[in-house]
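Methods — Computational structure assignment.
A single polypeptide chain was analysed. Its primary sequence is given first, followed by the predicted tertiary structure written as structure tokens.
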Amino acid sequence: MRDIMRADQTIQHHSSILLQTFDKISDFVFFMEVDGSTYRYVFVNEPGKQAIGWTDADVGKCVGDMVLAETAALITHHYDEAIRARKSIVYEDCRLADSFYSETLEYQDVILLPLHYFESEVTPVFDESGACTHVISVVREVTERKRRELELSILRDQHESLRRYSPHGIFVLDPELRVKSINPAVTNITGYCEANFINRSFLDWLPDSEQPLVREGLQFALSGKPHKYGVTAHDKTGEALDLAVLNIPIEIGGNITGLFAIIIDHTPEKTAERALQESERRYRQLIETIPEGIIVHKDGLILYANAVALETIGETYIESESIFTYIAAEYHEVTRKRLSALQLGDPVQDTEIVLVTPSGQHLHVDIGSLLIDYEGATAVMTVLRDVTEKREMERALRQSETQYRLITENMSDLVCILERDGRVRYASPSHQSVLGYAPAVYEGKNTLDFIHPEDVTPTRQQLKAMTAGSEPLTLEFRHLHHDGRWIWLETKIQAIYEEATLLHYLTVTREIMQRKVLEKQLKHLAYHDTLTELPNRRYFLAYLEEALSRVEEDGEELAILSLDIDHFKQINDTFGHDVGDELLRQFSLRLTQALRKQDVIARFGGDEFSVLIRYTDLSAPDRVADKLIASLQHPWQIEGHTFVTTSSIGVARYQSGMTKKRLLKQADLALYEAKSNGRNRYVMFQDR
């Protein structure tokens, strides 16, 4: 009997020690008695007591007496499941961080994470007969683990988005420089699929001449320093690729476990640079050298597209196609309005539209349009530049300045983040190479301090007009270079808002000095004859319109002389068109030498020329006509041929209230009369 009592005392002693041990652990421990379908509390450790407000007086109470009915039903369900399975089960649930659990959590955690996750392990206890007598439930909080899992999932999604949507090719390499994965852009750039690269050396697809440079760059990056350099390679079809390669170490747990090898395709830019070195003597050659897409169209049908435009659209031949075939439907109406405005002579601003390629890809392009003479007819020339990559970059920057800083620091464009008052928060490293200033020079200063004084006011006014719903704003202005020059820049500005509150401005800028020069050249071509370099019909009519509007104020008389070369067709037929073209050039030069600088000479087409003179001496038109008749009869020396030509001239004096159409008509009638009367003379128009 004493042995039995001593054994009971020993068991009670060890049970007491065991229960005290449960009080020392942070998990919640619930020891439940099975009473039919009811579970009653036998023991709860201290953390569990605090969690549900349990006291020793609650021994024998059932689950529903201590927790909410919904929670009690969930607990009972899992207890039942463990008993049926006759083994331990683990389940998770979550709770709102209300006062029910607040005593067990840090105050900071409650604020940061209103949802708390718990993991419960339920173990049934069976007697010798196989009946379940008790259930032991151990509950631990796993909120922090869940938070880390969520953060890791977000990081994985962000990394996958960058990998999938980056326009640059991304290779992942192991320490032995073997390719472990590529993104879709690698295939787009090289033409090779993933199977051509996986587990092969990154060097294998590069020319032998480039491999030493690339190997050195990769080894440099494995030492822990990013490295960038340029190489020439070939795509699957054998076409040359001009690539920039950026090597970035992959560091995990303090150890470099591999590399990112990022290839940036500069082939279009390099191709355009090479094209610009070729001859610009003729109009078509000039257009071919522009490093931007050029499309000439009339009545909506494409007459010509340069190589860059074809490459952008993804076609090899698009002449005779409608421009609307490649313009997204939502931009059709605005395009028609722009074309109508051009035909009426109204100016149109550069704008951004979306093109749809034959493969279904949507491209954001900046376009500018103007009227030109194309093969004897008036057509529209549209200059387009693909800014799709820039738009993707802007969206990425709005999502996270930090995550995508590495990309902006390797762009040739200038990227800035501006505070609401215009002060520079961040300037990309490319400012050093483009403008001569280190990025640190800009930070903390107002960006307007570097803009030409004449451009500050319009820039500030347009910035103030931006709202949360505004499209990105495009500005052109002059920016001070470190060496004292003024550099023309084009800036895209996006105001970044959060719930109607302006956070900052994002700007992406590029230098457009070359484009400004090209625009000046194109404007000259639009208003001048390419053969003689004289003003063309469009220029002359515009100048005449302006002169007529001021003729009364200027107090001078005005006259038009229409002239041509007698029997010019015979010259072409006899000596050939090359001689005819040279005759027109020398004829233009002789006109220029015979007239004053303030007189306006224009070639209307063929051998037809017009001259506008101002005078105060009423005999001036006759003297000028006589002088031209005499000057134009001197012999011509062209390609070994010597010959003489004559010219006929029709003269019309401006009378008050006359329109330009009537004045030109009178000059043409006078010219017709001079030719009818035997040529080699001038006729002054007289009202009959």
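Note: Confidence is low (pLDDT under 50) at residues 98-113, 276-280.
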